[in-house]
Write a structure and sequence with these properties.
138 residues; alpha+beta; four-stranded antiparallel β-sheet; two-stranded antiparallel ribbon; 2 helices
Amino acid sequence: MQEQEEDKRPDNVVFDEETNSYNAALMPYATNVGAPVITTPDTVTWKNVSIDKVNKQVKAKYDELKAEYDALMEKFEYNNLIYSAKFNFEPIVGEIYHLYRDKNQQPFLSIIAPTQCNFDFVGSFRLNADKMWETVGE
């Protein structure tokens, strides 16, 4: 019975059963009663703040790309509409032309300004050097 009591050590004593030695000095952390308390940092708050920042950055980039995509699709649709429209002349790069719809709702391109006629006006466009039609403010 005395042997069992001698084998028992207090919780604050660091004894390695395998090597049968005290190894407190070899531990990477403090082992005595007066040592500072080991606490784990609160990473939940840091993660939540970081996730919120990343989500805002991703959303901002998504909104930017979506706006670019929408502008590109609008440009594509206008170019498609103009190139499929009827016109009997070769448009000159840099000049402004006006797109109208006839009585059958078919698009046609004209040099006549909307203030000089009563056609169903769609929009004004300029042909750039890349042969892309750009909208011109009405």
